[in-house]
Amino acid sequence: MPIRIVTDSTCDLPPELVAKYGITVVPLFINFGDQSYMDGVDITREAFYERLPAAQPPPTTSAPGPGLFAWIYERLAAEGATGILSLHISGTLSNVVNVARLAAEEITRVPVRVVESQNLSLVTGLAAVAAAIRAAEGYDLDQLESMLGQLAKCCYCFAALETVEYLRRSGRMLHVMSMLATLLHIKPLLKMNKGVSSLERVRTSRTAMARLVDLYVGFALFSIWIVYRERAVAPSMIWVLLMMVLGFWAGSLYTLIALYRSGGDWRRFRLERRVD
Q: Topology of 4-28+63-153 in CATH?
């Protein structure tokens, strides 16, 4: 059995991809008051967002103990894994990666390599998928860690917040500032790359979405060059990424939707476009 990939539930991967690539997802805890739920096990995302508006105090998250990680690593070793790569959310956002490192020190049956994605959400998730694909092709732990380091350089996460209410509730924004931001229709735009987060402030949702597109196009062109130079993905994927950029640049989501439906095959995309 090849090297197995472990990540945590902040990766936001859909269950289909997790099952397809044999990725093991360690759930974090979501805490509503004195009640704790395992993310994706005891509570769904839909249930979380239903409870969020009325939750007082605001919900928090916490990492599982090293015992759970150690149990998962031991189980994978017993299943025949020759090594384990454990990829997790940036250490600047969560303590998960440090807990995983503590657990890895206790495992002697197989080598366990803990890697920080330096990002969050699907950036971590898609990096885990890339690692699973390469592991199936025979990459060793050193090669996988090197590849993930290359991906971290060119992977960005952008998010435009529709409301600052939850920033205020969490204590990350003063009440007076949140009132002013609401009055002026200010939308925070968050950015993350290589473990460093930053914030822009724009006015109105429409401006925020336009700025997201600008960021996507600019960074994606740069990132495609890095991916091409480092050969972090197959050449066919570089073509798909380029088509995605051009689709946004033209101001249309149609290219993205059609490429997704055609599995990234440009010829099938053209056929579907004529049929539709």
A: Rossmann fold (3.40.50)
